[in-house]
Design brief:
Blueprint lengths: L8 E6 L5 H15 L3 E6 L24 H5 L3 E9 L2 E2 L1 H8 L2 H6 L6 E8 L6 H14 L3 E2 L8 H4 L10 E3 L6 H24 L1
Parallel strand pairs: 1-2, 1-3, 3-5, 5-6, 5-7
Antiparallel strand pairs: 3-4
Helix pairs in contact: 1-7
Length: 200
């Protein structure tokens, strides 16, 4: 595939209920920008059991909702969610489940992807959430990138941070290690996106 300007950005797609995942997403975005790519923060609307409930096309505040076109034309993807019983939150899964057309066209094939999460406790299902979030990305043919142990904070953190992706253990703010790991994951993904973009 030839390079075009449409693929000069990385989508950071997340769902955040209380703001913790969003704070991680913002650090990932800083890393993406430092890696030489534009970072596009995108979110998804909540889901409701009320069949009559509808959401506005544009949220009242925060980042705008992700579109299929955002994903189709991206150079890479970072996917973030709070943990929900060891899995991603329903609103994000609902959105991902609606991307079959991108799967059929192979739009995401060979693009790099990473995952990130936040939980309310240290053993709150972070690693299973990250691993299960990777599955639909693998089905899309994406190239999964985590955080290597060459990142020193991975060995020193006593809060969030895993080789599978950036994490946060909910508290008032991100720890210095959580910030550093999220930044490094974003930067690494941007560098990989630039390299892989020229090989497609």
């Amino acid at each position: 595939m030839s390079h075009n300007n449409a693929e000069d950005y990385v989508v950071i797609l997340y769902y955040s209920r209380h703001g913790h995942v969003r704070r991680l997403a913002e650090q990932l975005a800083l890393g993406v920008e430092s890696g030489g790519m534009e970072a596009r923060l995108r979110t998804v609307p909540p889901v409701s059991a009320n069949c009559e409930a509808t959401e506005a096309d544009i949220p009242d505040n925060g980042d705008i909702y992700c579109s299929q076109e955002d994903l189709e034309n991206c150079a890479g993807l970072l996917l973030g969610s709070p943990t929900r019983f060891g899995n991603m939150a329903a609103p994000l899964k609902y959105f991902i489940d609606g991307t079959a057309n991108l799967w059929l066209s192979g739009a995401l094939t060979n693009k790099p992807a990473g995952v990130f999460t936040s939980s309310s406790s240290l053993h709150g299902g972070q690693e299973t959430t990250l691993l299960t979030m990777m599955m639909p990305l693998l089905h899309h043919g994406m190239v999964i990138a985590g955080i290597p142990y060459s990142e020193k904070s991975l060995s020193s953190t006593d809060a969030g941070g895993t080789p599978y992706g950036a994490t946060h253990v909910e508290s008032d703010d991100l720890t210095p290690e959580e910030i550093e790991l999220a930044f490094s994951q974003g930067k690494r993904l941007a560098i990989l996106a630039r390299k892989l973009r020229h090989d497609r």
